[in-house]
């Protein structure tokens, strides 16, 4: 009974947290997408209305009404999720550290190290390691970040000679990848490494250390949401 009471109290405490998170997400989305509420509600009403109408036509309004309610809720959740994601990317676009935030949410199997290379202009290169190999993601001025990418590749060449290395430059120009497509681009790379090979590559790269430990950093606070890489030191 005590365990049940503890479980019930935990669920009760968790639900307000989830509702608060949904409310905050809605407010954030509404700032850049004022019609999100109308669109989501319209989708729900349309799906429910269609299923209920079919139910009356075939003589089973109750069954189809229940099914319509469930499907309407699911459709509303999907539409809201997509519009919220689009709004989030829109607000992150062009912000320092945005690519690092995306990499942190690529999914399981990827190990992300933000800011393995950076210059005084805050052009930055992040690193992700997974079964597709090493992915270097650069954000900043396209001309300057390509030099950073080349330097990072050269530095890594002596450490992970048998691991594929991909590079992405975030942006909307030619040869660049928009921020919202970084995750899907990474997931499309062929998986060529086994789990132990990924672990070995990560260990070697950690042993190599990050460029941030021996290079001057730009003055001012770190961008919001960016984390110092493990082992990194600020001088």
Summarize the structure.
With 235 residues, the protein is an alpha+beta fold. 55% of the residues lie in helices and 11% in strands. It has helices spanning 2-32, 36-58, 61-92, 98-103, 142-157, 182-188, 195-208; strands at 111-118, 124-130, 133-139, 165-169.
**Alpha carbon gap, first and last residue:** 56 Å
| Mean residue pLDDT | 78
Series of H and E elements:
HHHHEEEHEHH
- Helical/strand content category: alpha+beta
Tell me the strand percentage band: 5-15%
Q: Please summarize the sheet with the most strands.
A: 4 strands, mixed
Count of DSSP strands:
4
If you compute it from the alpha carbons, what radius of gyration comes out, rounded to the nearest whole angstrom?
Answer: 23 Å
Write the layout of secondary structure elements.
Elements: H1 2-32, H2 36-58, H3 61-92, H4 98-103, E1 111-118, E2 124-130, E3 133-139, H5 142-157, E4 165-169, H6 182-188, H7 195-208
Parallel strand pairs: 3-4
Antiparallel strand pairs: 1-2, 2-3
Helix pairs in contact: 1-3, 2-3
Describe the protein in words:
- Helix content is 55%, strand content 11%.
- The radius of gyration is 23 Å and the shape is elongated.
- Helix 1 (2-32) packs across helix 3 and helix 2 runs antiparallel to helix 3.
- A four-stranded mixed sheet has the order 1-2-3-4.
- The chain starts with a helix and ends in a 27-residue tail after the last helix.
- It has helices spanning 2-32, 36-58, 61-92, 98-103, 142-157, 182-188, 195-208, and strands at residues 111-118, 124-130, 133-139, 165-169.
- The protein contains seven helices and four strands, in the order ααααβββαβαα.
- It has 235 residues and is of the alpha+beta class.
- It holds the Pfam family DUF4191.
- Residues 212-235 are annotated as: Disordered.
- This is DUF4191 domain-containing protein.
């Amino acid at each position: 009974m005590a365990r049940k009471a503890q479980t019930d109290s935990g669920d009760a405490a968790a639900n307000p947290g989830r509702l608060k998170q949904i409310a905050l997400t809605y407010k954030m989305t509404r700032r850049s997408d004022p019609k999100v509420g109308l669109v989501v509600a319209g989708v729900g009403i349309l799906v429910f209305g269609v299923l209920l109408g079919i139910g009356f036509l075939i003589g089973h309004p109750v069954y189809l009404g229940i099914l319509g309610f469930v499907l309407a809720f699911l459709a509303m959740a999907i539409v809201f999720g997509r519009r919220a994601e689009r709004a989030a990317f829109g607000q992150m676009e062009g912000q320092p550290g945005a690519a690092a935030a995306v990499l942190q949410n690529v999914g399981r199997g990827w190990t992300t190290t933000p800011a393995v290379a950076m210059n005084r202009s805050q052009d930055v290169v992040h690193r992700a390691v997974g079964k597709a190999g090493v992915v270097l993601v650069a954000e900043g001025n396209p001309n300057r970040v390509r030099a950073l990418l080349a330097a990072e590749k050269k530095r890594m060449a002596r450490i992970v000679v048998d691991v594929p290395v991909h590079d992405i430059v975030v942006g909307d120009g030619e040869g660049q990848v928009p921020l919202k497509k970084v995750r899907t681009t990474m997931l499309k790379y062929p998986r060529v490494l086994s789990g132990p090979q990924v672990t070995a590559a990560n260990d070697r790269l950690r042993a190599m250390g990050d460029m941030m430990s021996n290079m001057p950093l730009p003055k001012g606070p770190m961008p919001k949401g960016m984390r110092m890489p493990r082992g990194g030191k600020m001088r």
